[in-house]
Write a structure and sequence with these properties.
Keywords: Signal
Order of helices and strands: EEEHHHHEEHHHEHEEEEEEHEE
Largest sheet: 6 strands, antiparallel
Strand order of the largest sheet: 4-13-12-11-8-5
InterPro entries: BURP (IPR044816), BURP_dom (IPR004873)
Shape: globular
Organism: Urochloa decumbens
Structural class: alpha+beta
Protein name: BURP domain-containing protein
Pfam families: BURP (PF03181)
Number of helices: 9
């Protein structure tokens, strides 16, 4: 099975400093680092988006921990539970079930994004926020498929059972059919391929990238007993819906994003204040949060069995579907629309 570039062998390199240690490739006596360095990534960004800031969710991957620290920071995602034990036929059932469970809390109608509205705030945890980026040529050489799972595991050995489950889950998610009619999707393994897919999906290379505020903790927010009041709402894109791409960081040893476009959308920056503020002792939720929210406007192709619709007493197509971005998500929009 060919899992690397022609005649390329993967070797384990050790180097003091941790983050730059890792796999390297040897091609015709030339050694190329496996990971892309922060300076290389910054140079690429400035070459395609001069004078535009790098979103914090991308910067997190530039300061990636390594070794045991990286493994300790890995979190289980709702897609990863026993997913490696599922048959191919059962995988889609599990995938849809996971979405259905998540949607009960994570989805909101657009009407709540009005100053004075009060909600129980749920923002999913950021997954693999510190996984390092690959060089694009290395990333493109890895066949991201469950059919090559054994080879991929070998490339990142040693791999714990928990990490193996997460890796299978991520690859399986990348292979699933589109969840929504008209959805465009791709799993990207380099900054260049993420930008490339976004440009293709949006029909322009003149893009702006956004991430949610650092107010949102990596572990997300779950406030079943504490309510938040919407203090302010700012439209990032015009009130007229526009096309965007959202890329979700997935659980994998290296940076891998699940990018998809379910358009049209409206994007908001929402400032929320927890009821009780700082007066609540030992609260695990932040007193003030500024987070990005994506609203999918055309929902006619959404799953009609989602409890979201039952809760609203509506059917797909009768209301928008909104969700907050995690700390690890990246949102892309045409520069002309922001």
């Amino acid at each position: 099975m060919c899992i690397v570039l022609f005649l390329v062998s993967f070797l384990v390199a050790t180097a003091e400093g941790g983050r730059d240690a890792g796999l390297v490739t040897r091609v015709k006596e030339t050694t190329v680092p496996y990971y892309a360095s922060p300076s290389e990534l910054n140079a690429y960004w400035q070459s395609v988006f001069p004078n535009r800031p790098i979103p914090s969710s991308l910067l997190d991957h530039l300061s990636a921990p390594s070794g045991n620290k990286m493994k300790d920071m890995e979190k289980e995602h709702y897609w990863s539970v026993y997913s490696d034990r599922l048959t191919e036929g059962d995988a889609k059932i599990f995938h849809n079930w996971a979405h259905r469970i998540a949607s009960e809390k994570l989805l909101y109608p657009e009407t709540v994004f009005t100053a004075g509205s009060k909600i129980n705030l749920y923002i999913d945890r950021a997954v693999a926020l510190h996984s390092p980026y690959l060089h694009r040529d290395i990333a493109d050489s890895i066949p991201m498929s469950t059919k090559n799972f054994t080879d991929i595991i070998a490339m990142f050995a040693p791999v714990s059972p928990s990490m193996a489950r997460d890796m299978w889950s991520t690859l399986s998610s990348c292979e699933h059919p589109r969840e929504v009619a008209g959805e465009q999707k791709a799993c990207t393994t380099s900054l260049e391929s993420m930008k490339g897919f976004s440009a293709l999906a949006l029909g322009t290379g003149d893009l702006r990238a956004f991430s949610t505020s650092l107010d949102v903790p990596e572990e997300g927010i779950s406030s079943p007993s504490q309510r938040y009041e919407v203090a302010a709402v700012r439209a990032i894109t015009p009130r007229v819906a526009t096309n965007t791409v959202t890329c979700h960081s997935m659980s994998f040893p290296v940076a891998l994003f699940y990018c998809h476009a379910v358009n049209p959308t409206r994007i908001y920056e929402v400032t929320l204040k927890r009821e009780g503020g700082d007066s609540i002792p030992e609260s695990r939720t932040p007193a003030m949060v500024q987070a990005l929210a994506v609203c999918h406007v055309n929902t006619s192709g959404f799953d009609p069995t989602l409890r979201y619709w039952v809760k609203l007493g509506l059917k797909p197509g009768e209301a928008s579907v909104c969700h907050f971005l995690t700390r690890g998500d990246v949102l892309w929009a045409p520069a002309s629309a922001t």
